[in-house]
Amino acid sequence: MSDTISPLGPIDPASVPEAETEKTAPWIVRKLVGSMTGRIVRSSWETLRASGTSVVCLSPWGDSSPLLLPCIRFRDLAVHTIIAATGGVAAVAAPVMGPVSDVVVSTLGDTILVEMGMHVGFDLTTKAANDLIFDGAIKQVVPIHSRRLETTSVKSMTITLKYKHVPEDASLGFYRSGVHKDNSLFASVMDYLAVEKGWFSPYLFASGRRPVIPRSVKPDVIFCHGPFLSGDYRLGETLLAESAVVITLCKPPPPTTEPAPTQPHSSSSLNLPSLSNVFSRSRTPSPEPALTPLPPPPTPRRLAIFVVGLKPHRTFWTTSARPEESVIQYQLLNGCPAVVIPAKVGAPLLAWDTLTLEQLWKVTLPQGDASDARSKDGKFEGIVDVLYEFVDFCVDWERVVLSDKQGEAAGDVQDGIVDVGLDDRKAAVKDALKVLVAAAVRSGDSKEVKKEVDKERSGIAMWRIP
Q1: What is the DSSP code string of 314-345?
Q2: Is 176 exposed, middle or buried (0-12, 13-18, 19+ CB in 10 A)?
Q3: Which DSSP helix (H) or strand (E) runs through 442?
């Protein structure tokens, strides 16, 4: 596993609680905060904080309802630039967070509950689709017009995600690709009213994590580092298990034994190492933002990328936010493969492309499957380049593997794994993303998708999983 930290990782502050330790509040505190009196007190405190210039943001549900927040909310964002794989300079606004601990502490009871809906024609078993990337017999081909990428059915799952923390702001980051001529994160007047970038917001807000997304930013990808919920991992693994087609570019995780649950009445029995003893901190502030020093996780993490749709539990989104749990309908398309890649330390917990399915359906695909085939306006290639550029900062390239169906004859095959160079690994990841975007574009031809899926609340999202 690589020791390098993702440039998308959080910026290092003096100290902060562990990012993968699920926050909990006492039962009485949660009840008081949710009561009418508690809401009035918290509202008064937020009003008191609202001093200085206000910033217009999307509503927590990601719609066009007006929302004014004080600029103090954005004191924990550090904007910096990085050289992207495409050669351009990308802009990143990363949250300021402390050292994160990649240890999932088990809790009593399940963190998610899954209710499966009817999914006629959807494959019940996950099929490996590594052969979708290459046709190794003659030459490399990305079959974006393959019949296997044709969506004919939608699988809906109602998943309840539980949490035990008091609602707070999500630690969001914003990524603007270097592919654009203007890589500034700040939008023009024309883009000021765009709300599509908040299509994934209900996932966070329903689980007690307020997504604060200013209207004045125009990111290509929004990513989240916390607050961490162990249910995020379980939900990502559930979506992966229920996907009809999967492209895997990393080895499966080794079987691990669940740690014994801790005693709820004895908090002193937890013998956790102190992060202050692990990392040395400088007493002099650095003029440039530095990445947070992150310890390697006990099990290497993966990044699962899906085309997913969101729907409220009932008609309105407010029905998805219940006390201490969120209930959302998740939708998977059987023609859109899930892509699994190895994640490096510092990769975001969650991320989503700001383009919705409604916008992707307007993209023109290249004619034919030739390696040099391009679309007429170049938008398809641009979307793939932007997504690959973001993923490039998350991938642990040393752990990327190709199966014998993907590699060429020149590679050494051992246990079904082909030993190839870095360029071939990068080409495989980009081809997998190209297949994913093409499948999302082609899903607009399905009558079932247009009938069942909310095109304004669907797109490409990523979960970090064990």
Answers
A1: SSSGGGGEETTEEEEEEEEETTS-EEEEEBPB
A2: buried
A3: helix 422-442
* Most confident option among 33-37, 215-219, 258-262, 271-275: 215-219
Is 97:11 a contact under the CB 8 Å cutoff? yes
What is the tens place of the pLDDT at every residue in 93-144? 766 655 555 554 444 345 678 777 655 556 645 566 666 765 543 345 567 8
Helix (H, G, I), strand (E, B) or coil at 312: strand
Cα gap 388→70, rounded to integer Å: 34
Q: What does DSSP say about strands 350-356 and 221-224: parallel, antiparallel, or unpaired? A: antiparallel
- Quote the tokens at residue 353: 């492309």
| R_g over Cα of the chain | 22
Report residue 259 as tokens.
Answer: 């740690």
DSSP codes, 359-420: HHTTPPPPSSS-TT---SSSHHHHHHHHHHHHHHTTB-GGG--EETTTS-TTSEEETTEEE-
SS3 call for 463:
strand
**Tokens standing for 66?**
């007006």
Q: Are 346 and 253 in contact (CB under 8 A)?
A: no
Q: How far is CA 231 from CA 20, 225, 344, 442, in A?
A: 11, 14, 21, 31
CB 451 within 8 A of CB 193: no
Half-sphere exposure for 223 (CA within 13 Å, toward CB): 31
**Contacts for 240 with CB less than 8 Å, ≥ 6 apart:** 126, 246, 304, 306, 338, 340, 465
Instruction: Pick the closest to residue 329 from 100, 152, 183, 157 (CA basis).
Output: 157
Mapped onto helix, strand or coil, the DSSP state of residue 71 is: helix
What is the total residue count of the chain?
466
The model's pLDDT over 55-68, given as tens digits with 9 standing for 90+, comes to 677 777 777 665 55
| 281 or 302, which is more confident | 302
Reference 119, options 217, 238, 242; nearest CA is: 242
Taking the CA atoms of 434, 435, 440 and 442 in sequence, report the sign of the dihedral they define. positive
- 108 dihedral zone (left: phi>0; alpha: psi -120 to 50; beta): beta
Contact 456, 301 (CB under 8 A): no
Distances from the Cα of 171 to the Cα of 76, 211, 350, angstroms: 9, 8, 10
Of residues 115 and 465, which shows the higher confidence score? Answer: 465
